[in-house]
Design a protein that fits this description.
It is built from 13 helices and 5 strands. It has helices at residues 2-36, 44-69, 75-95, 111-136, 145-169, 190-215, 220-241, 248-291, 301-312, 331-338, 340-357, 381-396, 427-443, and strands at 321-328, 363-366, 371-377, 413-420, 449-451. A 5-stranded mixed beta sheet has the order 2-3-1-4-5, with helices on both faces. The chain folds into 2 domains: 11-286, Rhopdopsin 7-helix transmembrane proteins, CATH 1.20.1070; 301-451, Alpha-Beta Plaits, CATH 3.30.70. It is 65% helix and 7% strand. It holds the Pfam family MASE4. Its cofactor is Mg(2+).
Length: 453
């Protein structure tokens, strides 16, 4: 428990240091940019808004697809709704710049509407991110279908209601009037600067505390979410220090938010890469298990025959394919005298010896209890005989001491060699011919190599 608490504390500490470093770097870059560019184009704010809109739509779609793939992770749909609602609010923000594509025609900008959509966007995101954190705590508990549908429906209704309320509070409707910015002077109204802005900062602090307490910053995904909360707290604080809608703090806030959103996108892309890498490794492990003998880790019978058939398709006199069938001599005595566990150790020892005795392009397989087979590509009958003889002599030279106890006594092996010099022969015929040569070796005294004639 103490070790876990120390680990969590270390994560919190590293997260705080990382946030300070990134925000400090962004602040330094922004100040450098201000020195080099004394005034920003009026196009900058709506352009950054469009970038943010696209980024938030991307995150919303990504979260929705991940939820669709795993319905148990209900917290993802809350995050998807948060970014989807944010994107819809930014559409409203862009509607406040009716002439933003026409240069030098910015007198029609409705900064009050832009601030209204900005405020409701923060409300939607903060509330739904808190909801996602709460849903994250029950991710391992199956919910009933009615409860699942109710949560999704409730989140959707909340998002739509906030978007509709923002629309009604803006100049697009006369039902509700909310003054946050004086469009003539561009000055923030008291309601924004002394009430709503402070309440939004408090709301994001609560959101950050909830996320950090529940998720414990345990992976990059939640690191990105917590950093987004920190950036929103910083940006709102910057706006609190600013006095009007065209203040430089407004552009700085938008820059910070864009960078935080990009960080989340990079985290999601990394998550995709990690899932692909893990699935690829699992596929490779599953594939290897399907073609390998579980005891010796040599190739199994089916893979050997498949590989041999492929090699025989291109076999010819200048490119012969040799097959060596081998069988341990008197292996039944090993199992009877020393037990099957010792017998398995003998098989594993011989398997390693075979793998070390052939080239990477050759195939070593176990096709029976104590029966092994080798496929040597582009190898003549004489060369295959030399390989088999080398293996036989090498194995017969081991005893209990030199094998470190894996062989309870000296073991010998009988081997038969067959070489195909044309494609007019099947894999079964090759193995059968090599098998006949191996049985001839058994019948003529064992511990020898016989070439099929």
């Amino acid at each position: 428990m103490l070790a876990m608490n120390n680990c969590v504390k270390n994560r919190y500490f590293l997260f705080c240091i990382g946030c300070i470093a990134v925000i400090g770097l962004l602040q330094g870059l922004f100040l450098e940019l201000v020195e080099r560019v004394p005034s920003f184009s009026p196009l900058l704010f709506p352009t950054l808004t469009i970038f943010l809109l696209v980024f938030h739509l991307f995150i919303a779609c990504f979260m929705a697809m991940k939820y669709w793939c795993d319905r148990r992770r209900l917290y993802l749909i809350a995050i998807a709704l948060a970014f989807a609602g944010s994107a819809m609010m930014m559409v409203g923000t862009l509607s406040s710049f009716p002439s933003w594509l026409a240069l030098y025609q910015f007198n029609a900008v409705n900064y009050n509407d832009a601030m209204i959509f900005f405020m409701f966007r923060h409300l939607i995101m903060a509330v739904l991110i808190i909801l996602s954190a709460l849903l994250y705590t029950i991710r391992d508990y199956p919910l009933s279908r009615p409860a699942h549908i109710s949560i999704v429906t409730g989140g959707f209704i909340f998002t739509v209601s906030m978007v509709a309320l923002a629309w009604f509070c803006s100049s697009h409707s006369s039902l509700l009037l909310l003054d946050l910015v004086d469009n003539e002077t561009r000055q923030f109204m008291v309601l924004w600067s002394q009430a709503i802005n402070i309440l939004l900062i408090v709301l994001w602090i609560v959101t950050l505390a909830t996320l950090m307490f529940i998720t414990r910053v345990r992976n990059l995904f939640w690191v990105g979410g917590n950093f987004l909360c920190v950036c929103y707290i910083v940006t709102l604080t910057m706006l609190l220090a600013g006095g009007h809608a065209e203040d430089i703090a407004w552009y700085r806030a938008r820059l910070f938010e864009t960078v935080a959103t990009l960080l989340i996108i990079f985290v999601l892309l990394y998550d995709v890469f990690r899932l692909y890498r893990d699935s690829h490794l699992k596929y490779q492990q599953s594939y290897q298990n399907s073609i390998r003998d579980p005891l010796t880790r040599l190739y199994n019978r089916s893979y050997f025959y498949e590989s041999l058939n492929q090699a025989l398709d291109i076999a010819k006199a200048s490119r012969p394919v040799s097959v060596i069938v081998s069988d341990l001599d008197r292996f039944k005595r090993i199992n009877d005298n020393y037990g099957h566990l010792q017998g398995d150790k003998v098989l594993q020892f011989v398997a390693h010896l075979l793998m070390d005795s052939v080239r990477p392009q050759d195939i070593a397989a176990r096709i029976g209890g104590e029966e092994f087979v080798l496929m040597l590509a582009n190898t003549s009958s004489e060369e295959a005989y030399k390989v088999a003889e080398r293996i036989r002599l090498n194995l017969s030279g081991f005893d209990k001491a030199s094998s470190e106890g894996q062989l309870p006594e000296p073991i010998t092996i009988s081997m038969g060699v067959f070489t195909a010099t044309s494609s007019g022969i099947t894999a079964e015929e090759c193995v059968e011919s090599a098998d006949k040569a191996m049985y001839e070796a058994k019948e003529t005294g064992r511990n020898r190599v016989v070439v099929f004639k």
